[in-house]
Amino acid sequence: MRERWPDRVGRPVPRAAWAADLVLWAALTGVLAAELAGVRAAPTAETAVMALLLAVAFGVRRKRPLTALGLTVGAGVLHSAAVAVGMVDVFTPTYVLPSVVLAFLAGRRDGSAAPVVVLTATAALTMLSALVAAWASDGDPRAALTGITDWAGGVLVLIAAVVAPWLLGRYHKRHAQWRTAGWEIAARMERARAGDAERARLRERSRIATEMHDSLGHDLALIAVRAAALEMTSGEEGTRAAASELRVAAHQATLRLREIIGVLRGEDGTPAAEPAAETAADVVARAVDAGMPVRLVREGPDPDPATPVGRAVHRVVQEALTNAARHAPGARVEVRIVREDGTTTVRVADTGGCGAGAAGNGSGLAGLRALVEGMGGAFEAGPDRCDGAAGGFTVTARIPETADAGGATAPAEEPAGEATETARHWNRMRDSARRRLAAALVVPSGLAVAVTALGFLTLWYAEANTVLPRADYDRLRVGADRTAVEQRLPRFDHRPGPIPGEPPAPPGADCRYYLAEGSGGRTPLYRLCFAGGVLVDKDVVARE
């Protein structure tokens, strides 16, 4: 679109963002032009150059934020160097304002610390080089030493105009991400709740389907068995016909039940519902009452139906008897339940012939396999033999006594005190924002203290080596050899310039000044004048 331009990460930049940059450029250029007009005789060329430089800086600051910052910092450093060597009389503070703005914006877009460190160090060394050049041309070692304080002041300006705003920009960016992370987490939680609701709906559908398959399917199979037995034993034609119709209706109802169960289950593989609290013996008794020839063999007590093992045994027996009644009617069935060595083994075998129990879609056996194996057990289902001899279908399940419900239970809740991934992400963002805030406060303050201490230490050293003690001054005699006198003098001399009211110096004499006290300010000075290699005059000069 016409109102958008691509930024450094490929996203379009709205026209409002460009308008904001234009406003910033106009404001900074206007302030600089106003100050230059007050301190320069002809500021037009300098103003035009700075306006063009700022335009370039704001034009590239989205794609190359550190390049834009380097342009403005370089302009400020060159301006300070021009002041140091005497090319410009007055330093213009507004040269610093663009660096403050662009440093903050750079911190918001680029958090790399190395380029900023290199830029700041380069600017500091450039200012130091300019000052060294100025001091070398002057030839005053004390002025060069005390000039370190001027350089320290320039470094403080760099810290305040570049380092501190950049660190604040980094903190602002991370703090904004922290705030945004809250909304992202809320959206993620809403999606998770929607997913949980969908999974709960599918689990409920699966529960209903399993309940229908296990309970209604089993009951319909027993109804069909009773109807078949009545059809075979009744001597009346009408009764046999009614029993046959009942058997066919039960079979058709079973087929429709399968279709409904298939729709309810869909593609969901969640575990089945828990059966009623009855033992495997109760299931066998109901089958026997319905006319099925079932024999129950137990070795050891029945598993508790309230436990996962008891419920699994109940399901295996019920499903196996349902399959036998449905696919091998009239066949003899043996149910064997053995509990030993911490394992419950269930074996249901019929004599219905090769592959009789394998008919149908196999969804019940597949559900049993998933249940038993999910509890850490083993499951087998298939014909005994298919060699023409009497055979049948056998279902065998081995379930460890220590097994829980496996996949049949809801996932365990996370232990108390252990943070979730969302909480860990939130804490990381918060801690990162706090660290950046601490860095934005501590780093500039620490650098400022270190640079200020260096400046004051240098100033103290220069002043301490410019003081001429009163006793040494009194021992100096006019006419003494200059070499002998200089051995008693401090390392540096003080060059205050012309002092109003000081006595005239002897003609052709070279005069030096030394502090009488180490308190600076307007304290008296000792003036020593040399000519012809000897001390020709000594005076105490008072400064008002």
Automatic annotation (TrEMBL):
- Keyword annotations for this protein? ATP-binding, Kinase, Membrane, Nucleotide-binding, Phosphoprotein, Transferase, Transmembrane, Transmembrane helix, Two-component regulatory system
State the superkingdom.
Answer: Bacteria
Reported EC number(s) for this entry are 2.7.13.3
Organism, scientific name:
Thermobifida alba (Thermomonospora alba)
Compositionally biased spans, kind Low complexity: 404-420
Task: Name the catalysed reactions.
Answer: ATP + protein L-histidine = ADP + protein N-phospho-L-histidine
Q: In its UniProt entry, what is this protein called?
A: histidine kinase
Keyword Ligase in the entry? The reply is: no
For this protein, the record's InterPro entries field holds: HATPase_C_sf, HATPase_dom, Sensor_HK_TwoCompSys, Sig_transdc_His_kin_sub3_dim/P
Q: Which residues form the Histidine kinase/HSP90-like ATPase domain?
A: 308-403
Q: Which SUPFAM superfamilies match?
A: ATPase domain of HSP90 chaperone/DNA topoisomerase II/histidine kinase (SSF55874)
Q: What Pfam families has UniProt attached to this entry?
A: HATPase_c, HisKA_3
Region named Disordered = 404-424
Upper classification of the source organism reads: Bacteria, Bacillati, Actinomycetota, Actinomycetes, Streptosporangiales
Spans traversing the lipid bilayer: 43-60, 67-84, 90-107, 114-136, 148-169, 437-462
Keyword Cytoplasm (UniProt): no
